[in-house]
Please model this.
Amino acid sequence: MTGMHNSRTAPGVGSIVRTALRDLADDLFVTAVVNLLWLILMLLIVTGPPAIVALFYVGNRKAHGEVTEVNDFFFALRHYFWTAWRWGLVNMILLLFLWGDVVLTGHLSQSAFARFAQGFYLILLVIWLFLQLYALPFLFEQEQPSLRLAWRNAAVMLGQNVGFSLALAAALVAVLLVSTLFFLVIMAAGGILVALIANHAVLNRLQVDFPGNSKFSGK
Model:
């Protein structure tokens, strides 16, 4: 893995979620406005990928304990616009390919091998989606916002922290399921909460795996 600036001790997944919730509550106005902007821009489609990256940028700043403003979201929206669209296009192509394989394999055959192949593609789909939760924070931890490097670092982190990642995925599902019981909560804070948890998780694993490193070289 290649590079970042380090912070905090290394709590478990439960502590990461609690810290993310505290970050959310400590600056509720900014997080709620940023989450609302993200929702609106996602509906416009063309601004969807940049809005996701901007959301994670704000989450990264808050995870580092930095003061954040709504303007930070707009800064990231402009600064990472084309990087975000490259990320979005790669994701759209891969997700369409994998989901298409899942659907077509199920329709073409009901054999045991077909069901195995369908399950395999579905697992790949889930892994790729989860990988983005590590890749997006890496964009801001690296000296250069390289997507290839971010995906590489995310894959290495996932491979080195399988147990942690499974626990994190379970925690995210639990948090989102609970949030859906309170519709206004998930509408007001669901996206930014996921971004905060993902950023705290990446900082946590970097500190565990690379204690003492002050920054990634990005090479």
